[in-house]
Amino acid sequence: MFNLKPDFETTLMRMEAFWEGELIDRPIVQFILEKPAEKRQPLPALAHASPAERWLDADFQAAYALASLNNQEFLGDTLPVAFPNLGPEVFSAFYGCSLHFGDYGTSWTNPILESWDQADRLQLDWHHPYLQALHRITDAMLEVGRGKLIVA
């Protein structure tokens, strides 16, 4: 079912058995091994003017996820999964916090509440640009990952 996990059907059976409290042939085992250097494909070049540009570039994020996953062996019951991601604080941004992107894989926000008495003013913005960006990144990952990986 997935090029990067040819034995997916067996893994799926093990996982379904696990959730039913059953055992097929062995417990679920998950671990990733980096492919040898000579079998790895190059990662897309980091050619963005800022960390925010890189984080928000849906095509780059999808290509990077695919290349990264292609460079790994999914041993045991490990699955090739790509995660659309704008960092741990993105949900706060949907409520109005300023989101800052770092160079090294994280983002953070500035608080907007001075007191919990202000919490009732918070409103989830379903049209927030970062929510729309997550949709674009998800769509791009689904496109490049079709038949190869799972988009979580």
What does it look like?
With 152 residues, this protein is of the alpha+beta class. Helix content is 34%, strand content 13%. It has a two-stranded antiparallel ribbon. Strands 3-6 form a two-stranded parallel sheet. It has a two-stranded antiparallel ribbon with strand order 4-5. A hairpin with a 5-residue loop joins strand 4 and strand 5. It is globular. The model has no long low-confidence stretch (mean pLDDT 95).
Relevant terms:
6 strands, 152 residues, globular, two-stranded parallel sheet, two-stranded antiparallel ribbon, single chain, alpha+beta
Taken as a percent bin, the fraction of beta residues is 5-15%
**What order do the helices and strands follow?**
HEHHEEHEEHE
| Number of helices, where a helix is a run of at least 4 consecutive DSSP H or I residues | 5
Which stretches are poorly predicted, pLDDT < 50 over at least 5 residues? none
Which secondary-structure class do the elements indicate?
Answer: alpha+beta
Shape: globular
Radius of gyration: 19 Å
| Strand count | 6
C-alpha end-to-end distance:
16 Å
